[in-house]
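Might I ask for a little of your time on a matter of protein folding? The record follows directly beneath this note:
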Amino acid sequence: MINSVLTSISLPKRTMPTVHRPPSPSPPSPISSRQRRPDGINGVNGDDGQHLPSKRDNHLVESEYSRKAKLLIALANDLTRLGGAQFDLDIPCLAFIGNQSAGKSSVVEAATGIGVPRESGTCTRCPMQCTMIRSSGQAWSCRITLQFSYDSKGQDRVPPVAKFFCELSNPKDVEIWLKRAQAAILSPDADPDDFRDLTVDDLKALKTLPFSLNTIELLVRDPEGTDLCFVDLPGIIQHHTKDATLVPFIKNLVERHIKRKNTIIVVTIPMTDDIENQEAFRIAHRVDRKGLRTIGVGTKPDLLNPGSLSALDLWRGILEGPSSNLKHGYYCVKMPDDRTRKLGLSRVELAKQEEEFFASRDPWKSIDDKSRLGMKNFVDNMSKLLITLIEKNIPTIKRTVIQLLDKNLQEFEQLPPKPKVESPLPWITIRIIRFCKVLQGTIHGTINKDFIHQSQARYETFKAEITRTTPQLVAQHHNPAVNVLVGQITVDTVRDVIKSHMTWELPGYVHFDATKDLILRHVQHWKKPMIDCFEAICKATLALMTGLIKDEEHFGRFGELQGFVRGIVEEQRLRFQTETSTMLNKIFDLENSTPIYTANSAAYTSARTSWLNTVYQNQNPQFHSDAHKVMADVHAYFQVAHMRFIDYVILSLEGEWHQKLVASLEERLIEAVSLAPKERLIYLLSEDKLIAAKREDLTQKVDQLTKIKERLIEYEKEASLTYNDDDE
C-alpha cells in the first residue's frame, strides 16, 4: 500500500486523492507547486537554503552561475572518482531508479543526449555514473571509464581501480561502447581491452555475470548540455526465472546507492501504472520516509487513454501540488517512442515535439504552471537543486576529509618503522641478544619479579601437595569397630607389617624391610605432584618466551622471524624438558627405592625423639614398643626426606630447566642466524603480514584522502579566481 511508500496517500477511484499522514513522526505538510515555485528551490531535507525554480530558464547563460556550476559538477565527479564513497563522504548526486520498463532509460537518454543500451528485459545491469558538463565553445566528447570499487565478494576495493575504456567524439557511438563497457564490468576476470572491438552479435554471445556492483563512469562535455551528475541504477525486478537471488540483489544495490542523505532520488513511473504498487517508491520510502529528497517523474503520458478521467485527474492533482506527498513533487516527461528514435531527430526537434504534446493534450495544456512538464524543465531544475546541494556540503566534506586524513596519518605514524635489510645479520643478532637478556632478567628476577613470584607460588603449591602425603600415624590400639581413615597408619598395621617381614631374627630385633615398606608406601605419592609442578613451570616459561617473541621490541613485527625463533625455542624446549624430566625422575627414584638414607642425623634424631616423647610422655625408652619405634623411624625419615625432595625438585627446575635453557637458547639462536644465508635473513625480516597489510591499507587511504583534499583546495582556488574575475 502507498501508506508504506509515499507518506501515505489514499487513492479513491473517481475523486481527487487526499493526503494521509502517519501519526509519528509527522512529515511536513504538502506544499503545492504554486506555494513552492515562486520562492525558488526548497531544501532537499527541508532546508530553506535550497529551492526549486519557479519557472524554467530559457537557457543557462555563460555567467557566474554557469561557471560555478561547471566547477561544482566537476568537483563532485572527481570526489566520486577518487573513492569518496568509501570514506562515507556524502557527495550529492542524483540517483535514477524505477521498476523494470518504467521508461528510466528514455529519461537518461533525454537528460544526456546519448543512446543507452536497450534490450528486452533489464538493459542496465550495473550502475552508470554520468557527469554532464556544459562545455561552451568546445566540441562534444564523452570519456568512458570502468570503476572497479568492489571485489568479487562485494567488499570495498581500496583503493578503487579505474580503467580508462574509451574517448568518443560522436554521440551516436556511445550506445555500442556502453554495451562493451557493461560486458567488461560483468566479466571481472577478463581484460577490459578484449571488449573494445566486439560487435553487437559478439556481445550477445558472451556469458557474463547477470549484474555487478561496479560502475561505468561517463564524463560528457556537451556545448548544448546542462551541468548535472547522476547515477543510473538497474531496473527493479519482481521475479527472475533463472535466479531468484537476483531480485534482492538488485534491490540491495539500489538501496545502497540511495541511502545517503545527500542523494536525490528520482523515481520514474509509467503514468499508466498504479502508483500504489511501485516497488521503486517502496525502496525510496525506506530511506526517505518523509519524502524530503525523493522526486517522482511520470513517463509515457501519451499512453494514458483520454477516457481515463480518474487517472488523468490523479496525475494533474499530483503535478499541481495538492496531492503530492513529496517535498519536491513530481514531473511529467514525454519521451520519443522507438519509431521516433529511429528517425534520428536532433535534441531541439525532440524537445519541440514534447512541447507540442503538452500544449495540445488535456489535461496538460490546461495546467497553469508548465514548469512541471517536459524534460528541459526537469533537467534544468535538477541541475540547480544539485549544484546548490553540492555547494552547501563542501565545508562538511572538507572537514570530514581533514579529520579522516589526520586519523589515518596518526595510525600510520604509530606503526613501527619499516626495517632496513641491507645488513640483516647484525640487526637480527642485536634483537636476539636483547630478547635473551630480557628473558634471563625475568627468570633471574633482575628485570621483572612477577615471573619469579608466579614460580614461587607454584612451588608453594607443590610443597603443600608433598606435605599432605605425610603419614598419619595412630599410636593407640585400633578399635575394630571404627574404620581406618585413608592415609592413616595404626599401630596394629605396623605390627602386621613387622610380622610380615619377620624371618630368623633374634628376639627384640625388627627387620628393616618393615620400616622401608611403610616409608615407600607414602613416597610413591610424590611423583604426580612433581610432574604437575614441572608441567606448570614449563607452561609458564613457554608463555613468557612466547610473549617476549611477540613483543615488537624483539621479533613481533616480523612473522617469519617469529616463526624462525619459535622453531629454535621449540627445539631447545624439547631438549631441556627431556633432560629435566630425566633428572626429576632420577630424584624421585632415589627417594622411592633403597637405600633409605639421610646424613642429616641431627634432624632425623630430633624428629624421632620428639614423636616418641609425645607418645610416651617422656617415659624411659626401655618401655617403647617395637611398633612405636618403627612408627617413629617412619615419621622422622619422612620429615627429613620430603623436605629434601622438595628442595631437589625446585633446584632442578631452576637449574636444569630455567638456567640451562636460557643460557643455551642465546647461543643456539646466534649460531642459527650466523649459518643462514643473507637471502634467508632478508626473508626473515619480511614484515608481519598483518602489519604489512595495515601499512598498505593506511598508505592507500592516506594517498586517496590527500588527493581528495588537494582536489577540494584546487576547487577553492578555481572558485576564488572565478569570483575575482567577475568582480573585475
Remarks:
- The chain has a mean pLDDT of 84.
